[in-house]
Structure formats: C-alpha cells, structure tokens
Amino acid sequence: MTLVEAAVETLDSALAAERAGADRIELCDNLSDGGTTPGAGLIVAVAERTQLPVFVLIRPRAGGFVYSDDEFDVMIRDIELAGRMGVAGIVTGALTPDGRVDAERMRNLVKAAAGLPVTFHRAIDFAMNLPAALEEAIEAGASRVLTSGGAATAWEGMDLIAALVDQARKRITIIAGGGIRQHNVRDVIARTGVREVHARLVDEVQMRGLIDVVKRNMDAGND
Between β-strands 24-27 and 3-8, what pairing exists: parallel, antiparallel or unpaired? Predict the structure, then answer.
C-alpha cells in the first residue's frame, strides 16, 4: 500500500486531511517559507483531536539548514517537548557548511527523539551529493528521508528518487515530496517505487482527489 502524508499548519487543516483520508500528518508552521516548528499549543491540539499519527517539524527558522549552537539547542529542546506531547514522530534535518549531512548533530537529534521515528526532511535536497547524503542519514539513525530528488518537484526528480529507493534497500524509507498533486502522483509512484508520498494540503477537496488517485493506483496493482 502507498501511504499519504499531509503537510498542514493548522488544526482545521489537520482535521480536513483526516477527513480526506490521509494516513499521517506532518505538522508545521509557516509552510509558505518551507515550514518551521509549530507552537506547543497547536501540537497538543492536533495530537488530541486527530486519530492520525502526527509527525512534527523541528526547524527553528526559515532559510538554510546550517544551524548555530544556540539554534541546535532549541531544536533539541523542541524535540524533547514534542515527545512529551504524544506525537508519533519527528521531522528535522541539518547540514554542514560544505553541503553534507551534519551527522553528529543528526545523531543527537535522533537521540533526543527517544525512540520516535525521525524523518530527515528536504534539507537533503540541498546536499552536494544526494546518494552520499542518504548514507549519512541512514548512519545517523533516521527512519525516513523526504526528498524531491534534488529537483524543484518530485515529478522532475523522479529518476534520482528511483535511484535512492534502490540504494536504500529497505534500510530506510524514501518519501517522495515536492509538488505532489492529483495530476502527477500516479506517475511519481510508478516511476520511483516509493511507498510513501508527501503533499501539502491546499484544501480538503484537493487532498481527497489526490488520495483517490493513490487508492485507485493501489487497487489496479492488486488486480
């Protein structure tokens, strides 16, 4: 089966994603700037009001993914706090100034998650070498990697996403994300072989349409 993760930034959007049939929530703030850490009150409300697993984005600011010591300290504290709020997973990532996965900091972020699965988010698409970055994310203990294959959208990056799925060899889950919509999700799944896709919720109708395409694709594969 193919899992659909919906990126949302409000309680109403989380509830709409659930009604539309999403399988998991990625909860963020400021999606227009690529997403930042949501507030504690929102995390609690979404975790309490939805039946879906809630993964929380931990990103202290918009912009790049190279963080100061103070920013990194905030990320650790936010992960620990989110874990106490009943979330199901963490979404985060950090790079070094030379465009590699910041493996030491990622290991510490994974440790702070205290057993919750950690998704390395699309910071990986800004790494200098995506295949090498995937290995670094695996070694750091990430459970998933969200990627558009280094392109502006997952549809444009399908070939590299497919290569990353092959490289992962079930050691880590590859999630295709970036511009996933109803009109292209079938092609992305078919070309890449991903078992999870990530899409921003625009509205409930749009999300329901995307999920219907995914389900029809799954039904066709079972015929």
Answer: parallel
CB 87 within 8 A of CB 43: yes
Model-level pTM greater than 0.90? yes
For residues 113 and 90, the answer to whether their CB atoms sit within 8 Å is: yes
- CA-based nearest residue to 108, from 63, 72, 57, 153: 72
Say how far apart CA 17 and CA 165 lie, in whole Å.
26
Lookup result for tokens 């995914």: 214
pLDDT at 221: 59
What is the C-alpha radius of gyration for the chain, rounded to an integer number of angstroms?
16
Amino acid at 121: H
Classified as helix, coil or strand, 12 is: helix
Question: What is the amino acid identity at position 21?
Answer: G
* Mean pLDDT on 95-106: 97
Mean pLDDT of the chain, nearest integer: 96
Instruction: Specify the pLDDT at position 218.
Output: 75
Q: Which runs of E-coded beta strand occur in 62-155?
A: 89-92, 118-120, 144-147
* Cα distance from N-terminal residue to C-terminal residue, the chain: 13
Domain 3-215 CATH superfamily = Copper homeostasis (CutC) domain (3.20.20.380)
For the ranges 23-37, 171-185, 187-201, 206-220, the lowest mean pLDDT is seen at 206-220
Count the neighbouring beta carbons within 10 Å of the beta carbon of residue 174.
24
In angstroms, the CA 181 to CA 1 distance is 18
